């Protein structure tokens, strides 16, 4: 079973990589763009749609506001991209917003950003995959009944690809991302050329009117302002994922900050061009899209009507119908890039979780790299949580979108505020006039970013809180509290384990009592007795529990024939319990001699089949679980390998192993320091080898 599992893992993920190969996984700009920017690029596919879905709540009367809202989103994106370029240069270690805020505003504020970003990364996967599935269904409506299954399969595929490595996932995802960018730009260019030539494309929904929702036909004053602000906040989904590059600077080739900043600028320019083009083309083609198809006036059968996405309607109108090659190319590229947009989160989430684990705010396992030099534990956690969200919300974009973008703007606002303090501190210490001018300009950019994104954060909270954003806020608060609790735990453990008096801690106990648990006189028992005797304890005795009078009598007869000087102690157990009497006996020995150490040796079978574990070692498992909580007690398992375990034992590379084709394990022995001697002290002759712990 272990061999089959290992073979499957290698086929799925590839061979394990040595730590020295980490430099080979670094990304050039052409691969970093699809890896870290697929989310903001792909959000072009639904950002315009989200604006129109909100505005059409009041019918078609308010669609004229669309260009102004799009201009606001473009301006906001420009400010955010410029602001994060400052972050990339000032904090290139990969902490991004978390590091900026923790350094300049304090650890608690940094945890707020971290919690918000972790929640938002999960939402990125859920929304991107759900939106991608929507576009698949737009091209193939027969798959509408399998929405959730498709979404979960796509999450599993993304997980497997990212577990193979950052560079490998970049190569796999580069072509779909660049295909999407090219397809959308060609579609926009073709549509606008047709418009300028007097042959404007017309969307399939242009012939339908839109019935306003009750009470929204004649909105004025505050109600109209709230509708417009809600549409603007929905359009701000175009900014999701912009911060991922600042978190992923360590993954770039050298010079890391310059390459990351160039990639960020390219991403911003491409995203702005695509978003502006799609929005303009949607207005030209008169796309009418609503949350409930039954509000479309002129539609014969709304119950059986599958509403196409904005991108699908534009591709159909520009390229001559839903059976054209151009339509299927755009839809295939859109579906692929929306699903692959989750890759931004699959890179950002593990990196951020690793930094938080290094700072002891998350379990330390999240800081460990897997076989392929990626943070595999973080990837798996993200996949499980996002999959649960997709299953719980039935992979519905409209339901999930309300939980989205809140974390992004929390991160934007606090990080830009932190950068303002960073530049203020730099201005107080830097006397060079040229650098001071650059600092002042950068401070203006970051201050503008903090002001604008803070305003958007307030808008998002006001317009989306009751529609479901409160769940994202609650999740971030719970995560923030959990991370603080984890840090308190690690701090308490570190304080408890700190050595204050080395001599006292190294003083051996005055006496050692060794207890060997015995149930029968057989080979495992004799091995445990011999092993315990090798420790030269002050006292050595065998211990058994009288749960069965006849079995105990046979054991005592066998022990007498064994003719050993080790005494056999029999503990009475009138209720036929094993664990309780042994634990009580050990605790009594500790109470009698508190300064002594008790060593308990437990013979155990080593089996090769999973079901054999159910037949053996259950008593030993319960005993160890109880004894480990008893101070001053050392528990030692003495294994006895049964024949069935032979096929899972590790192969030992002996003399001639290379000629016989025995594979290397990848582990080696480090050369001892020159001049070291056995025992670690200086002097001639070398020293004891230290095992190489490189993965």
From TrEMBL:
This is APC family permease. It comes from the Bacteria. Pfam families: AA_permease_2. It is a multi-pass membrane protein. Keywords: Membrane, Transmembrane, Transmembrane helix. Residues 677-688 have a biased composition (Gly residues). The chain crosses the membrane at residues 61-84, 105-130, 136-160, 172-197, 217-239, 260-285, 325-352, 373-393, 399-420, 441-462, 468-486. Signal peptide: none annotated. Its main location: membrane.
């Amino acid at each position: 079973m272990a061999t089959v599992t290992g073979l499957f893992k290698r086929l799925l993920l590839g061979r394990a990589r040595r730590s020295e190969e980490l430099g080979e996984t670094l990304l050039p700009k052409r691969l970093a763009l699809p890896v870290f920017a697929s989310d903001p690029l792909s959000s072009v596919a639904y950002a315009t749609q989200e604006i129109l879905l909100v505005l059409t709540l009041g019918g078609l009367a308010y669609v004229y506001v669309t260009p102004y809202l799009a201009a606001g989103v473009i301006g906001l994106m420009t400010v955010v991209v410029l602001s994060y370029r400052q972050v990339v240069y000032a904090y290139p270690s990969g902490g991004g917003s978390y590091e900026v805020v923790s350094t300049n505003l304090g650890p608690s504020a940094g945890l707020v950003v971290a919690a918000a970003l972790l929640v938002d990364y999960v939402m990125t996967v859920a929304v991107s995959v759900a939106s991608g599935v929507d576009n698949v269904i737009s091209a193939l409506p027969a798959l509408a009944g399998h929405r959730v299954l498709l979404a979960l399969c796509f999450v599993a595929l993304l997980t497997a690809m990212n577990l193979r490595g950052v560079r490998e996932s970049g190569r796999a995802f580069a072509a779909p991302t660049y295909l999407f960018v090219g397809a959308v730009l060609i579609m926009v260019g073709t549509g606008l050329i047709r418009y300028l030539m007097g042959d404007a494309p017309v969307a399939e929904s242009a012939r339908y009117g839109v019935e306003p929702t009750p009470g929204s036909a004649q909105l004025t004053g505050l109600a109209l302002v709230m509708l417009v602000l809600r549409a603007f906040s929905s359009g701000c989904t175009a900014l999701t994922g912009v911060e991922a590059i600042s978190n992923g600077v360590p993954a770039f080739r050298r010079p890391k900050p310059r390459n990351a900043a160039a990639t960020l600028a390219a991403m911003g320019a491409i995203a702005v061009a695509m978003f502006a083009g799609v929005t303009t083309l949607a207005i030209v083609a008169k796309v009418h899209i609503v949350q409930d198809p039954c509000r479309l006036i002129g539609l014969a059968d709304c119950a059986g009507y599958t509403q196409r996405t904005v991108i699908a309607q534009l591709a159909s109108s520009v390229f001559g119908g839903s059976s054209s090659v151009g339509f299927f190319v755009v839809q295939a590229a859109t579906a692929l890039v929306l699903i692959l947009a989750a890759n931004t989160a699959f890179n950002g989430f593990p990196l951020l979780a690793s930094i938080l684990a290094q700072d002891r705010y998350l379990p330390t396992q999240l800081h460990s790299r897997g076989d392929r030099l990626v943070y595999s534990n973080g990837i798996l956690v993200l996949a499980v949580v996002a999959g649960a969200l997709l299953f719980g919300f039935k992979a519905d974009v409209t339901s999930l979108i309300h939980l989205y973008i809140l974390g992004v703007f929390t991160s934007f606002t606090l990080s830009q505020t932190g950068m303002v303090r960073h530049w203020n501190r730099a201005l107080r210490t830097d006397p060079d006039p040229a650098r001071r001018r650059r600092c002042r300009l950068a401070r203006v950019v970051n201050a503008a970013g903090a002001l604008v994104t803070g305003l958007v954060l307030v808008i998002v909270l006001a317009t989306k809180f009751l529609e479901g954003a409160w769940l994202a806020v609650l999740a971030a608060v719970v995560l923030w509290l959990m991370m603080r609790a984890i840090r308190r735990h690690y701090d308490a453990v570190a304080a408890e384990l700190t050595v204050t008096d080395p001599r006292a801690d190294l003083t051996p106990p005055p006496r050692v009592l060794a207890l060997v648990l015995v149930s029968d006189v057989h080979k495992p028992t004799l091995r445990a007795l011999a092993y315990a005797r090798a420790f030269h304890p002050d006292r050595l005795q065998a211990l058994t529990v009288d749960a069965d009078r006849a079995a105990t009598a046979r054991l005592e007869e066998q022990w007498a024939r064994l003719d050993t000087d080790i005494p056999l102690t029999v503990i009475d157990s009138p209720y036929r319990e094993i664990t309780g009497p042994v634990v009580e006996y050990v605790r009594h020995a500790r109470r009698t001699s508190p300064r002594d150490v008790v060593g308990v040796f437990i013979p155990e079978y080593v089996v090769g089949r999973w079901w054999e574990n159910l037949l053996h070692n259950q008593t030993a498992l319960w005993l160890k679980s109880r004894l480990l909580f008893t101070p001053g007690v050392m528990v030692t398992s003495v294994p006895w390998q049964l024949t069935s375990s032979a096929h899972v034992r590790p192969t030992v590379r002996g003399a001639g192993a290379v000629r016989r084709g025995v594979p290397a394990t990848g582990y080696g022995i480090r050369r001892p320091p020159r001049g070291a001697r056995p025992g670690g002290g200086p002097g001639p002759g070398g020293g004891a080898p230290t095992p190489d712990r490189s993965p």
